[in-house]
């Protein structure tokens, strides 16, 4: 199984030299990032995708939704005692499908793009606005300084994507145009998760359409 702590990926873009990434780190911290929020302690970094729900430590997590006859279940932890790089994780969501862990979503307090590039290696870049698309076309996405990479700081809406085997990791940064509020999410999921959800939706929609009262 792929352990997110040991996830080491190199996806080398055309024209870029080979790069050996350091080990990815999700660090546990005992510090309080917000005085008015008690951090939830737990073994959140010791989690494997495909792990059975019965084997996942969900202490401090709450059930936030069940769908399709409980085949799809979500649990959420607010303010887990965890950091990615130097940024605190504000929430962690567990996605279970048929009692197996298929996806993790981390809401990160700050932009950790450079840390992830250094830890996981070069990624696929997905532009989410016109400016990012223009920078991609001009090749002004990332610069290399010695042994580390730095993303263009003018980028506001984009996604970095890493793949390894049957897992996908994604880091998405979004800035609202109205007030420039930045939100950052890191996802670690089974490849094809979205298609599995759509397949489940089609199945249950078809069942509902054919259901009748005797």
Automatic annotation (TrEMBL):
PROSITE patterns membership: PROKAR_LIPOPROTEIN (PS51257)
Designated name of the protein: Lipoprotein
The organism of origin for this protein: Fulvivirga kasyanovii
